Amino acid sequence: MTTTTTPPRDTGAAWLAVTTVAVGTFTVVTGEMLPVGLLTPIAAELEVSEGTAGLTMTAPGLVAAASAPLLTLGARRLDRRTVLYGLMALLAAANLLAALAPAYPVLLAARVLTGVSIGGFWAFAFAMAGRLVPEPQAGRAASVVASGIAVASVLGVPAGTLVSSFAGWRVAFAAVALLAAGVSVALARVLPPLPAERAARAADLRRVWRPGPLRVVLIVTALVVTGHFAAYTYVRPFLEQVGGAGAAGVGAMLLGYGLAGVLGNFAAGARAARRPARVLVTLAALIAVATIALPVAGAATGPAAALLLLWGVAYGGVSVTLQIWVAGTGGGEAGTAMLTAVFNAAIALGALAGGRVVDGVSVSAVMWLGAGLALVSAAVAGIAGRRTTSGS
Q1: How far is CA 36 from CA 55, 56, 164, 281, in A?
Q2: Which of 13, 121, 183, 208 registers the highest number of CB atoms within 10 A of its CB?
Q3: d(C-alpha 155, C-alpha 252), whole Å
Q4: How far is 82 from 129, CA to CA, in rounded Å?
C-alpha cells in the first residue's frame, strides 16, 4: 500500500509526533515482552508450569503475526492516526484484563488481545514513520521509531521485573495498561491526519513471497528471532536455577542487557545502511556465542552478566538491521507488514519451542537451541550477502 500526507508544518511538531510513535513502539514491545521477567511468579500463583506460562509469549506472537497483514488489508481507507491510537487503547484494555485475571485462561485471553494491538501497531508505525517528516529526514525518523524496541529492553522488561519483585506481577501489567492509555491520548493529540491513499490488496502481500531478496530477509528473520526467543523467554528461570540469582539480581542483569541493546541498536543501524546482510551475520554469530557460553558459565555471576551484555549488544541491532534490509529491497508497506508478521510468529514459535525444551529437557538446554538457530541464520544471511556482493 502506498500512502501520502503532508508532514506537520512545524519541525518541532513533526518530531514530537515521531517521538510519540516511538514511545508507542516502546509500549507495545514492553507489553509483548513483559512475561519474560514475570514467568516465575505467574507460574507459581496461577499453578502452571513455567513452560505453560511461556504461552503468554506464544499467544500474542501468533496473533500479532496474523493481525499485521489482516489489519493492513482491513484498515483500507481508515486514517492511520485513528488506527494507531485505537490499537494503543486496545493494548491498555488488554493489560488491565491481564492484571485482573483470576485464572490462567483469562490471562491467556488478555494476551491474545495484546497480540492484535502489537501486530497492527508495528505494521502501521514503521510504515508511516517517514510520512511525519520531510523526505530527507525519513530514514532518521524510522530509526527513532525503531529505537523504541531497544529502549523497551532497557526500561520495559527490567522495570517490569523489578516492579514484580516488590509489588507483584499484576502491578507490572497494570503499569503497562496505564502507560498505554496515556500514549493513546497523546497519539490522538499530536499526530496529523494520515489518510490512506488506496486500500491494500491481497496481491501486495503475496508479492512479498516471490523469490528474491525480500523473501531471504523474511527467512533470516524467522530463524534468528525464533532462536533468540527460544532462549530469551526463559532467561529468568535460567538465571535463577542455574545462576542462583534472586529477583533483584535478575532485574539488574536484564537492565544491563537492555542498555547494551540500545548501544547495539545504534551501532548496527549506522553500519546496516550499506551492508545489512553482513551486519546480520555478525549479530547472529554473537548471539550464538553468548547462548552457547551461558550454560558453561553456570553459577559464575560475573561471566553470566558479561555474556548477557554481549547478547544484548547483538540482539539490540537485529530489528533495525532487518528494517533497513527490508527497506533496501523496496518492500514498502506490504514488506513491513510481512516482516512484522514473520517477526511475531517467530517470537511465538521460539517461546513455544523453548517451553517444550525447558519442560522436557532442562532450562540450560534451551540456550543450545537458541545458539543453533542463530548459527543457521548467520549462514543464510552470509550466503545472501555474498550473492548481493557478486551481483548474482
Answers
A1: 11, 9, 12, 26
A2: 121
A3: 11
A4: 15
Task: Decide if 60 contacts 30 (C-beta within 8 A).
Answer: no
Residue type, 284: A
Q: Assess contact for 260 and 204: CB atoms under 8 A.
A: no
**DSSP label at 152?**
I
Kindly provide the b/e burial profile for residues 265-289, where b requires at least 16 CB atoms within 10 angstroms of the residue's own CB.
Answer: bebbbeebbebbbbbbbbbbbbbbb
Per-residue pLDDT of the chain (392 residues; tens, 9 = 90+): 444 444 445 677 888 888 898 899 899 988 888 887 788 888 888 888 877 887 887 788 888 888 888 887 777 677 778 889 899 999 999 999 999 999 999 999 999 999 999 888 877 887 776 677 776 666 677 778 877 877 776 677 777 777 877 888 899 999 999 999 999 999 999 888 877 655 566 666 667 667 777 888 899 999 999 999 899 888 888 888 876 677 677 777 877 888 888 888 778 877 877 788 899 999 999 999 999 988 887 766 778 888 889 998 898 888 878 877 887 776 666 777 788 888 878 887 888 888 888 888 788 888 999 999 999 999 998 887 676 554 33
Three-state secondary structure readout of 297-363: HCCCHHHHHHHHHHHHHHHHCHHHHHHHHHHHCCCHHHHHHHHHHHHHHHHHHHHHHHHHHHHHCCC
Residue 367: all three cell numbers together: 540456550
Question: Cell numbers of 202, please?
Answer: 491481497
Q: Which of 291, 308, 258, 358 is nearest to 54 (CA)?
A: 358
Q: Is 12 helix (H, G, I), strand (E, B) or coil?
A: helix
